[in-house]
Amino acid sequence: MEIVYVYVKKRSEFGKQCNFSDRQAELNINIPPNPELAEQFVERNPVDTGIQCSTSMSEHEVNTERFEMESRGINHVEGGWPKDVNPLELEQTIRFRKKVEKDENYINAITQLGSIMEHCIKQNNAIDIYQEYFDDEDAVEVTDEAPSAKTINVLRDPQEIKRSATHLSWHPDGNRKLAVAYSCLNFQRAPEGMSHESYIWDLENPNKPEIVLKPSSPLVTLEYNPKDSHVLLGGCYNGQLACWDTRKGSLVAELSTIEFSHRDPVYGSIWLQSKTGTECFSASTDGQVMWWDIRKMSEPTEVVILDIARKEQLENALGAISLEFESTLPTKFMVGTEQGIVISCNRKAKTSAEKIVCTFSGHHGPIYALQRNPFYPKNFLTVGDWTARIWSEDSRESSIMWTKYHMAYLTDGAWSPVRPAVFFTTRMDGTLDIWDFVFKQCDPALSLKVCDEALFCLRVQDNGCFIACGSQLGTTTLLEVSNGLCTLQKNDKNAASLIFERETRREKILEARHREMRLKEKGKAEGRDDSLREEEPTFHLEELVTKAEDEFFNIIYSELKKKETEAMKKTKPKQPGLEADEEVEGEDLGEEEGDGAQAPT
Amino acid sequence: MQAEVEETLKRIQSHKGVMGTMVVNAEGIPIRTTLDNSTTVQYAGLLHQLTMKAKSTVRDIDPQNDLTFLRIRSKKHEIMVAPDKEYLLIVIQNPCE
């Protein structure tokens, strides 16, 4: 808070000398002591005060400003030649060298140095100091270690207008680079002047992106081609698909024509396994799944409309938010929709209607992530609304395992590629959860607050150790997980498969029971008369209401009675002790007054 | 006397794993080298500075001490530098078997 006081002084008065003069002492106020006030105070003896004898310290935080650094190389050129020798002239240099070689100093120096050097060379040849001595011992099981994860690096969006990081993709070989797609997913709320660029970051240099990708519309998804690490596929906000070749530069290499592209942002795009390595498919909330060949992006090779009534009506189609494809099952793929339904499809079906095989419903909101378990492809993970669920293809009515309802919306999830029972989820409150259902089923094994804003996407590296998560403000955080979570334990696979089988069986039994119950109900309903059926509901209603009211009042009366009896019990034992209490109180009062009389003296 | 020098250098070069040998004087001029000129010039410039730094470090810690030998082990090979008042003997060896 700034307090400003303005005073005005005449210019002519500046620099005027102060005239001090002596003055007699004046008595302004004389307040004599008033002993009567002391009676309001009581002397306390003994007094309890805390004393600490230690060095007083203060905490101070210092953070240096970010320092921009650039790596440059030095080119070494020949030099140091004396003035009379021209380094380009071979003769002169040879002559110089010969002269030096004849120098006595040189000869002595070289013989001496030579012997030292030989000794070291022979040493090197005799023993390899980096030899592995303990090769035979296998890696010790680290099951006892508490799971932990630490942030290694943070990649910030260099743009001023922050966009959210909506998709991440690791480089297929070596995992040194990370491609991040940036866009603003709030409907029509993208600020003016927001840049469309997306970046490829090199983890060695977290300050500046290595390659900039410039599409005409912000990218919602971005995927590296697993077969050719120079090619990337991006799905744009305006529904087009764009393809880049990092060798060619940052401008789009291939772009699909807008008439044949999606009508909504492309939310899922995956490369397919094919001999040419140029096929991919994409899905969007306009209800279509399109197959493309990047050599010819003018038109999709195939289009499937996600209408579960199997009538190919675009108006009834469900919007797709996530797409799943596993290269070990090349003919099947799954789509997660905005309506909370997972559609399993078969690519090789003859008619378009047969493409949609079955649906799984259970989520209340859009399914943001969908992935098959890399070890047990029959089971897949879906993340949507406030839970994450694990499904089995055999049980279609409900998921086999699910997490509890969280306080924040779940935005993305992925299985760990190394351990079959571990999966990761991100939430809108900026938390990353690591679940290990072999270890604990009710809660995540580890819950980390990565940043204050919402986390939008997550990608695990192939070795299972590094996780990258992208947030709403475009910050990508790289985390390294502890060894226990990224090394395969001995009985992991068995335990995970047992759990999956057990849960699937349980769901099947429940399904069977539900079916039976439904059949029974149907049988009962058909057995009754129609008229009775109509009256019964109303009759039942009044009865139920009165019954409920009676129960309610009964409960209240019984509670009141209970309280009264308890109150009575408390007052009874007090009565004989009351007289003793009064005496004690009287003594205390007397003491205080006595003290009060003593204090002023 | 000169023949001794030749013999020594030849012996060093013939040891197992030795990739290159060079003798550089205090001004950075390569006197004898078995590698090509550009590589030699690069090694000479860089290692000279490093040797000076290492020497001054050793002397700073204990003024009566002096640098006798410098070994730089890297992933691919080992660079060994034997310093003298005026000359540097540099050998690059590949020690892994």
TrEMBL record, chain A:
Q: Name one Pfam family in it.
A: WD40
- Region (Disordered) spans which residues? 564-601
Keyword annotations from UniProtKB, A to Z: Cell projection, Cilium, Cytoplasm, Cytoskeleton, Dynein, Microtubule, Motor protein, Repeat, WD repeat
Q: Which InterPro entries match?
A: Dynein_IC, WD40/YVTN_repeat-like_dom_sf, WD40_repeat_dom_sf, WD40_rpt
Q: Where is the composition biased (Acidic residues)?
A: 579-595
What name does this protein carry?
Dynein axonemal intermediate chain 2
Q: Which domain of life is it from?
A: Eukaryota
Family according to the record: Belongs to the dynein intermediate chain family.
Compartments (UniProt record): Cytoplasm, Cytoskeleton, Cilium axoneme
Automatic annotation (TrEMBL), chain B:
Keywords (alphabetical) are:
Cytoplasm, Cytoskeleton, Dynein, Microtubule, Motor protein, Transport
Annotated signal sequence range? none
Protein origin, superkingdom: Eukaryota
Localization, UniProt: Cytoplasm, Cytoskeleton
Principal place of residence: cytoplasm
Q: Where is the Roadblock/LAMTOR2 domain?
A: 5-93
- Pfam families noted in UniProt: Robl_LC7
* Gene3D superfamilies linked to this entry: Dynein light chain 2a, cytoplasmic (3.30.450.30)
Q: According to its UniProt record, which protein family does this protein belong to?
A: Belongs to the GAMAD family.
Protein function: Acts as one of several non-catalytic accessory components of the cytoplasmic dynein 1 complex that are thought to be involved in linking dynein to cargos and to adapter proteins that regulate dynein function. Cytoplasmic dynein 1 acts as a motor for the intracellular retrograde motility of vesicles and organelles along microtubules.
Question: Subunit notes for this chain?
Answer: Homodimer. The cytoplasmic dynein 1 complex consists of two catalytic heavy chains (HCs) and a number of non-catalytic subunits presented by intermediate chains (ICs), light intermediate chains (LICs) and light chains (LCs); the composition seems to vary in respect to the IC, LIC and LC composition. The heavy chain homodimer serves as a scaffold for the probable homodimeric assembly of the respective non-catalytic subunits. The ICs and LICs bind directly to the HC dimer and the LCs assemble on the IC dimer.
Name of the protein in question: Dynein light chain roadblock
UniProt source species: Felis catus (Cat)
Lineage, broadest ranks: Eukaryota, Metazoa, Chordata, Craniata, Vertebrata
